[in-house]
Amino acid sequence: MTDFREPTLDHLFDMHADLEAPQPIGMTPIGMRQTWILTGGTFEGPRMKGEMPAAAATGW
Fold it and tell me: Which domain holds residue 42?
């Protein structure tokens, strides 16, 4: 039988995102859909650091 280690979590990074106000798309069969436009931001962690450029909208 194989012994498995218990999984652990490591901190990857903290993120700050600058977003425009939510843009409603409308109701769907599973609820209201809206999107946000990323206007910039930063992320920083133990092994990585960077900036996020403005990007296309992401729907949630």
Answer: 14-22+32-59
